Each structure stands twice: as C-alpha cells, then as structure tokens.
C-alpha cells in the first residue's frame, strides 16, 4: 500500500512540474507579444508626435481601408448612384439642394493653420499614403498643376490624385494673393513628393506664360525624379474621372506613345501665329508685325493645352534643336498652348510622335488627356451634336459641369475632365470624388 502511494505521488509530481513548465512558457510568449504590440503602438505614437513627413510607398498599413472612405464629407444628402445613372428626379432634387443649402468652403488661411501638424492633416484629410498595388508603384507619374486661386479646390484635386510614388510640381500664378500662396506652400510642405515650382510666371490668358509654366515644371520634374514614366499637366478646375490604377493601365497601353489633341488647323486660326503679340498691362496686344514662317516645321497643328506624354518626349524637347526653335518662335503668338504641343506631336523624330498626314489627326474626344464640353458643340446627339447639353454653366464657352453631366462623363475614356467648380455645383464634385475614392479602395486591404 505504501509503495502504491509513493508511485502515485511521483507521477503526480512529474505532471505538476510539466504543467508548471508549460504555463511558464505560455506566460513568457504572451508577455513577448504584448511587449511587441506596445512597442508598435509606441512607434506609431512617436511618429505622430514627431510629425514624420516621409510617406512610405509600401509596407505596413497603419490605417484601415474603411477609414479612408469619404463618407464624412457628404455635405449634401443625395443619392449619387441615381445621379450617375441619369435619374432625372434625383438630379432635379440635387439642384434644389445646392440652392437651399450653399456649402461653406474653407478659406485659404484654413489650410495654413491645418498643416501646422502635417501628420494630423494627412490623416484627417484621408490621404492615401501608401501604394495600393505593385503595378502602380512601377509606373510613377509626374504632374504639373498650374493654379491661381481656390486652395480648397486645389487640395481636393491633390488628395484625389495623390499617391506616394508619383511626383507633383505645383505652379502658382505669381500674381496670386499672399494668402493663397501661403496656403499652397503649406500643403506642399507636408509631402516629400509635392513641390512648388522654383520659377513662377505671371500668367496671362492667351500668352506664352501658360506654356512656360509647364516647361518650368517639366524641367524640375526631370531633375528631381529620375524614374517617372509619363507627364500629365493639370489646372485647378480639372478633376480625375479615372483612378490612379486605371490611369496606369492607360499609360501602359500607350506603350511609349503620347495622347493629346492634334489636328489640321481650321480656317481662321492661322492668325494666332501670323502676327507678333506682346503682353501690355496684363493683356495680349497685336503689334501689327507679321511673323516670319518657321523654316524647320512643315505644318502647324491645332490642339489644346492638355497632354499625356512620355518622359522621352519631355526630355527630347529640351535637347532637340528643331523643337527648341519652335519653342522660341512661339513665344510671341496668341494661345501657343493650343498649337505647340500638337505640332511637336507631329514632328519627325519626336518620341511617340505621329506622321503629319491627316489620317493621324486626333481630336480631343479621341485622346485621353482631357474631357471638355464646348458650348457650340452641345445639343441633341441624335441630331448630330457632339455631346448633350451642359447642366451646369459656361465659362469661355466651356461647360462647368453640373451633377446632371456625370452620367455622360463616366461613360467617356478620358483620364481627366475640365471644368469643375464647387461654387457652380458642389454636388457634382462631391459625387465624383466619392465615386473615384470607392473605386480606388475596391481592392484595398490593410
């Protein structure tokens, strides 16, 4: 009996010791996990405290994808899905809402104050501070954004197109207000890949200054960032109608080519470069001096200020003697932005260019650079008009889009559309912005 008791106690003791060892190991593992988690939390808090400004292009995601949705900014209670589908009743309701309750937009000084803590600004404004796909990382895009007013609309545009692998040059009209300049400088200072152009132009409508602003940005973008693949130029009233991933897909499809409007000149437009013009008191004045034709260019082509061109195209125009001669010759013409890029695209030897034969003409509706509704081409599409009537208003014969235009806009293949203005129709921009964000986050995972 005594022997049995000894054996029982020995077995019990062994089991007890093993149990204690197992519990001790589990306790150590648990503590290690807790310490690691606490360290991670402390690291995040430390980054927040220090206001770290370098945004990772990949790696750990500190924000849930759901936290990047823009539902908090739904200032107008509208059914955007119904608007996208062209629902007449919902579009009419949106028009009543925007009249009844006018949205208050932040003034320029708001952004100067809000960016005092960049970490808070980036999180509260829901910038996507990490690349959402490997494919997007491999095709960085260079942007030139030429602006002169409305920091709120610029910041909204920047947030929608922002990714950490892209690079953004912002050209501010040198005549802009001090408050506006300070606001834009403050926003740019929060991002390592957003910068203000080193040389600012006094922008005058119809003058060379608009082209020079893009050239200033092009030159700096080439020097600052060695890997971007394509260049896209924007203005403050543009807005994307495609996600960054969709833009990357289109650029890959171009396969080194360019996409911009370039057509044979319509009768009457030749006067724009026939005479020498000069800026006098902020306006273009005809000096009544006939310009000599440029000998190195066979034909001048008509186009627009908007383009999607390869890095090789941009590099070429700064080096090639014929391209540089065209640039110099165009400086005293009217609206050179509406023919210089179109002409370069048809010059032999320019990377991605097309032959000068009319069969290679590309209209603005065929290129992907910009979707624009011209007032004189609006009307009944079934009766030969180019596009339906504008539901917003017009500025210099261009439609400033309303919510009723979104159904048509989202059926187009362009990357960006012009023009949007929250003072004309804030609901159009609210719905479009949320649409782009939802598509952007469709494949997002933390």
Notes on the structure:
By secondary structure, the chain is α/β, with parallel strands linked by helices. The protein has a domain at 61-104 and 371-413 and 415-446. The chain has helices spanning 2-50, 80-84, 88-100, 108-114, 118-124, 134-137, 151-161, 178-188, 209-224, 244-254, 271-274, 311-319, 321-329, 340-344, 406-409, 426-440, and strands at 141-147, 167-172, 194-196, 230-235, 238-240, 262-264, 275-280, 283-290, 301-303, 308-310, 371-372, 393-395, 398-400, 416-418. The radius of gyration is 28 Å and the shape is globular. The relative contact order is 0.12.
Q: What does this entry show, briefly?
A:
The protein is an alpha/beta fold and 446 residues long. 40% of the residues lie in helices and 13% in strands. The protein has a five-stranded mixed sheet, sandwiched between helices. Strands 5-14-11 form a three-stranded mixed sheet. It has a two-stranded antiparallel ribbon with strand order 6-9.
Structural class: alpha/beta
**How are helices and strands ordered from N to C?**
HHHHHHEHEHEHEEHEHEEEEHHHEEEHEH
- The radius of gyration is 28 Å
The total strand number stands at 14
Q: Report the major sheet.
A: 5 strands, mixed
- Average pLDDT reading: 88
User: In whole angstroms, how far apart are the ends?
Assistant: 65 Å
Fraction of helical residues: 40-55%
